[in-house]
Amino acid sequence: MNNETKTHSQNSVQVCQNCKKDFTIETEDFNFYEKIKAPPPTWCPECRLIRKLAWRNERAFYKRKCDLCNKNIISIYPDSSLLKVYCQDCWWGDKWDSSTFALKFNPNKSFFYQFQQLAESVPVMSLFNTNAVNSEYCNYAGNSRNCYLFIAGRDNENILFSNRISFSKDSMDIYIGINLELCYENVQCEKSFRLCFSKQCENCSDSMFLYDCRNCQNCFGCTNLRNKNYCIWNEQYSREEYLKKVEELNLGNFQNLQNLKLKFFNLYAKAIHKYAHLINSGGSTGDQIFNARNCQQCFDISGTGSENSKYTNYVVVGVKDSYDNYGMPAAERIYETIAVGFESNENSDYCFSFFIKGSSRIYYSYNCISSHDLFACIGLRNKSYCILNKQYTKEEYEELVPKIIEHMNNMPYIDSKGRVYRYGEFFPPELSPFCYNETIAQEYFPLTKEEALKQGYKWKDKEERNYTIDLKTEDIPDDIKDVKDDIIGKVIECEHKDCNEQCTEAFKIIESELQFYKRMNLPLPHLCPNCRHYQRLKQRNPLKLWHRICMCDKTTHTHQSKCDIEFETSYTPEKKEIVYCERCYQAEVY
């Protein structure tokens, strides 16, 4: 992309166009923007993230008909949406061609206005669910087999009601996990087997209620353990004693389990918390970063090979030389994107785009597959040198794109709140096909209806639901041994009934789910899948950092009185967790 950039040798403080707060653009940031030939941002990092998340609906599902074959489908787009929605078979089929919706660029109209015209004509997929085998009710998922209501991840089998999990099987109710098997109600765990109700654990098996444990087997209600067996509430037992005490807990009983959850929460509050989970990730800041290098203010970076990136969240495999992205397997040189990088080559080069797969050099585009050199395109497959879905020669494309960029700067889009969008800004939130509370922006940055409308977002009012309840919450059997197979398919009342967590008010138990509860000796849940998801979300730290000082005051940790090491952490100062620097944490835990 050809647009003017300037080399900067020092940091620059800017005022965010959205929240009006100061933010700093550092020298290394200017160098990145110069490399990708994009202007510096006018929104602060947090506002940029929210702006993108307001385009990602993961779990607000609707019943509707496919606009091509007319069959009943489940979609993230309601009937009231202005978009044409196709089922998976129709969208990937050969009965339509996205090129037929091509527009010729009009220099007399705003670029974003023209893009919106195209968006309202090109059909979209009902769900982002590729290579699914018996996994129709999944979204942002790839290579799923026998999965149900699974959101965001890849290469899974028999996964139910989970979010952001990959390379796993036979597990349910998980939030962020990798390489898990027979696991339940875990948050940010990996490489574990038969692990339940645990948080931030690795290589653990046959255990329950663990926090920050590594290489532990047959442990219950423990924190900060390493290489342990047969421990209960951090006390050592013999094998025989351990098995007897765990059996006495009667974990298949709902009330017993609730009491244990409360006891574990109290133990968790007294545990030592390392300021950040940065594993083999030199020069990095943020949290939950594994096997990375020089990733700044990033969160949930797993796999291997991520490096030289900033303001990036949720990477499954590896991302390089990239800024301001959310949700990707692997990519290089990308900026301001959501859900890109699937099957990408080493020369990705995506900017200001959404759901791009197996492509390169894609700008301001959406839902494009196996293509290269696209600008402002939607739904194209195996195409190149297209603008607004219109085909050009390579020479025509390279001549017209700089003119469009200049036009975007000279005739910017101005939204209802007076925010200006020139080249370099992600799509305006008011053009998103979703309401704020349908998207994951509401999950990580929750707003009330009044706050959302004031900030220029759309809001989805709660729909009236008239379920015929077969089983009220108080009538759910307490013990899994008392649950009969005829509960499958019954409409069960959600205990919340009314909350701001996308509550469905009722839910059903499916056959594979009941088999899992019985196999694992676990009682039936009392909350719908959405409410259960939000309870797990509350266990994670925010996607932001605070400057804090180590809380350790033990003189045995190489400091005379209180430790004075400072760091950036996602633990908020208002909470009561005991947060240590790396040195004090290692001295206390290992």
Task: Give a quick set of tags describing it.
590 residues, alpha/beta, ten-stranded mixed β-sheet, 37 strands, globular
Structure description:
This is Caib/baif family protein. It comes from Candidatus Nomurabacteria bacterium GW2011_GWA2_43_15. Helices cover 19% and strands 32% of the residues. The radius of gyration is 25 Å and the shape is globular. The strands form 9 sheets. Strands 18, 19, 20, 21, 22, 23, 24, 25, 26, 27, 28, 29 and 30 form a 13-stranded mixed beta sheet that branches. Strands 7, 8, 9, 10, 11, 12, 13, 14, 15 and 16 form a 10-stranded mixed beta sheet that branches. A two-stranded antiparallel sheet has the order 1-2. Residues 1-7 have low confidence and may be disordered. The chain is of the alpha/beta class and 590 residues long. Among the domains are: 142-274; 278-401; 473-537, no CATH class; 546-589, no CATH class. It is built from 12 helices and 37 strands. The termini are far apart.
In short:
The protein has twelve helices and 37 strands. The chain is globular and about 80 Å long.
Which helices and strands occur, and which strands form pairs?
Layout: E1 12-15, E2 22-25, H1 27-35, H2 45-53, E3 62-65, E4 72-75, E5 85-86, H3 88-92, H4 111-119, E6 124-125, E7 129-130, E8 138-145, E9 150-160, E10 163-166, E11 169-181, E12 184-196, E13 205-211, E14 217-223, E15 229-232, E16 235-236, H5 239-248, H6 254-269, E17 272-274, E18 278-279, E19 286-290, E20 292-296, E21 298-301, E22 306-320, E23 323-332, E24 334-342, E25 350-357, E26 360-363, E27 366-369, E28 372-375, E29 384-387, E30 390-391, H7 394-410, E31 413-414, E32 420-421, H8 441-444, H9 449-454, E33 492-493, E34 506-507, H10 511-520, H11 529-537, E35 546-549, E36 566-569, E37 578-580, H12 582-589
Parallel strand pairs: 5-6, 7-8, 8-9, 9-11, 10-11, 11-12, 12-13, 13-14, 14-15, 17-37, 18-19, 19-21, 20-22, 21-22, 22-23, 23-24, 24-25, 25-26, 25-27, 26-28, 28-29
Antiparallel strand pairs: 1-2, 3-4, 15-16, 29-30, 31-32, 33-34, 35-36
